[in-house]
Amino acid sequence: MRDLLIGQVLSFDDDPFLEGPSAARIEAEGAVLIEDGRILAVGPAASLRAAHPEARRHDYGKALISPGFVDAHAHYPQTGIIASWGKRLIDWLNTYTFPEESRFADPAHARLAAETCLDLMLAHGTTSVCSFCTIHPESVDAFFTAAQARGMRVMAGKTCMDRNAPDNLRDTAQAAYDQSKALLERWHGVDRLGYVITPRFAPTSTPDQLAALGALWAEHPEVAMQTHLSEQKEEILWVAKLFPEARDYLDVYERFGLLGARGLYGHAIHLEPRERDRLREVGAALVHCPTSNAFIGSGLFDMAGLKAGGQRIGLATDIGGGSSFSMLRTMAAAYDIAQLNGAALHPAQLWWLATAGSAGALGLGERIGRIAPGYEADLTVLDLASTPAIAQRAARAEDLWQALFPTIMMGDDRAILATWVNGKPMHRA
Ligand code: GUN
Ligand code: ZN
After folding, report:
1. CATH class for domain 2-68+370-428?
2. Confidence of residue 429 (pLDDT cuts 50, 70, 90)
3. Which of 4, 62, 192, 225, CA to CA, is 20 to 30 A from 428?
4. Could you tell which of 76, 94, 97, 242 is best to mutate to test the pocket of ligand 1, judged by most ligand atoms within 8 Å of the CB?
5. What pTM was estimated for this model as a whole?
C-alpha cells in the first residue's frame, strides 16, 4: 500500500551554511509518496495525486511536511532527571545523574525509561536519536528493543566508565571492551539500529580503558564513536591534571585511537585553535547541545566560526542536561547562543541542523534527514500556527522562512501534527 502525504514540503539538497537558503527544496503545494518505509517520489501534489490515484491520501492542508528531526546526542537514562535544579557539570553528574543511572541495573527500569524517552521524542517530531546508555549492558538492550518496536533508526552504546564514578557505575578496561564488543555484535545493523562505541568522557576512563575502546574502534571502523569534549572550563582543567602528557583535551582522545571521521564530540565549546584545526582535518563531527549549554552554564558554542571553517556539526537536545525534548526549542536555543556570539543563524540553517545536518554528522546522510526518492520515510508534519502567539505572527509572513521562524522560536510539541517513522504514522496530535 502506498501513502501520499499532502502539504507544504521542505527538505534540503545542500548545506545552507554554504549555499544560503536556496539549498532548500520547497514544494508549497506538495506531496510525498511513500511505500514500504521508503520515499518513492516528492513533487507537486496535483501531479502526484493524478499519477497515483491508488495511494491512500493524508491531506495536511497548509501544514509543513519536514524530514523527521534527528537528535544527534542524548542520554535516554536521564529522562527522569531532566530539569534538575542548580548545578554545574561535575556537581550535576554527581548529584543527579549518577544516582539515576545506577538504577539502570534493573531491566524493568531501563525498559520504562527507554519507552518513555522514545515516545516523548516521537511526540516532539524526533524520529532518530543517538543516545548514550549506562554502564549496564541491559540498558543498551532496553533502548534498542524499544526503538526496534517503534521502527526507529537510532544509534546507541554502553557508556563506559572505570574511574571517577560511584562503585556501582564502574566497569574495567576489559569489561568495557568485552561488553561493548558483544553489544556491537548483537545489535549493529539489526533492523535500523546502529551501535556507537561510547566512552563517557576522558575524566571517567583510565588510559587503559580509553586504549581498549580505541582498539575496539580500530577493529570496527564501520561504527561511530561518541563522547564529550570541552564542555566546561573546570572539566578541561581536570582533564589536563589527569592526562598531563596530552597537548590538550582532544589530544587525549587522539592518543588512544578515539579521534576519527566517525567520531561524535558533544559540546566542544572551549576549543583551542589546534583542536579546531585537528577536528576539521580529521573530518570529525561536533554536536551542539544549546539548551544544555545554557542550562548547565557551560558557555557559547561558536557555530558560525566553526561552520565557516568547514567543520561538520550536528544539533542535539542532550537530554537530561538539556532542558527540552523539542528540537524546535533546541533550534531556538541555538539561535539565541549564536546571537550572543554576534551571529544570526537563518531559519534554513537551523532547520538543516535539526534534519540533514544532524543526519550527516551521524554518518546517516544517505538514509535519513531528507525528503528525496530512496530516503527512508521518516517525516514530521508541523502546524505553523500551533498557538495563538505563533499564529498571529505567522499570519504576517511573506515567505516560508518568515512563516517558519515563529514556530522555531516559540514552538514545541503542540506544533507536531504527526510523526511518521519508516513509512508508518507513529504519533498523531
Ligand atoms: N559529560 C560527561 N557526562 C555528561 C553527561 O551525562 N551530560 C553532559 N551534559 N555532559 C557530560
Ligand atoms: Zn551528553
Report:
1. mainly beta
2. confident
3. 192
4. 97
5. 0.99
